[in-house]
Amino acid sequence: MAKDMCEVTCIHEDRVSRVKEQIIDQPFSAVATMYKLLADQNRLQIAYALLLEEELCVCDIANIIGATTATTSHHLRQLHKTGIATYRKEGKLVYYSLVDHHIKQLIQQAFSHMKEHPTYAI
């Protein structure tokens, strides 16, 4: 038997009941979708760029990540569609920004964590 598995089945009913009550109404699907979007390197770079600079136009973001404006717009639309980013139009330019401080904190904490625990890097 593997060292990382219980050798017998033992259910701690009080703990199981307590946790089940707390997780039943959590938006797991939405959170998983958010993480899937940020798991793409281009979209994560875009989000990180928007963390560093409050607002950037599509052309600037494309230049920063080294992609075409079409590819960049595609990624930005996905970030917008799921509520991670928002945009405003000014004349012929479209400026994007992150929606709120929660997304900013999430990204900051992930990069901070990687600095402390570089073993996750593949």
From TrEMBL:
Q: Pfam families, alphabetically? A: HTH_5
Keyword presence, Transcription: yes
Matches recorded under InterPro entries: ArsR-like_HTH, ArsR_HTH, HTH_ArsR_DNA-bd_dom, Metal_resp_trans_reg, WH-like_DNA-bd_sf, WH_DNA-bd_sf
UniProt entry keywords in alphabetical sequence: Cadmium resistance, DNA-binding, Transcription, Transcription regulation
Q: Which SMART domains match?
A: HTH_ARSR
Positions of the HTH arsR-type domain: 23-118
CDD domains listed in its UniProt record: HTH_ARSR
Which PANTHER family is this protein grouped with? ARSENICAL RESISTANCE OPERON REPRESSOR ARSR-RELATED, HTH-TYPE TRANSCRIPTIONAL REPRESSOR CZRA
NCBIfam families xref list = HTH_metalloreg
The protein's name is: ArsR/SmtB family transcription factor
Source organism per UniProt: Virgibacillus byunsanensis
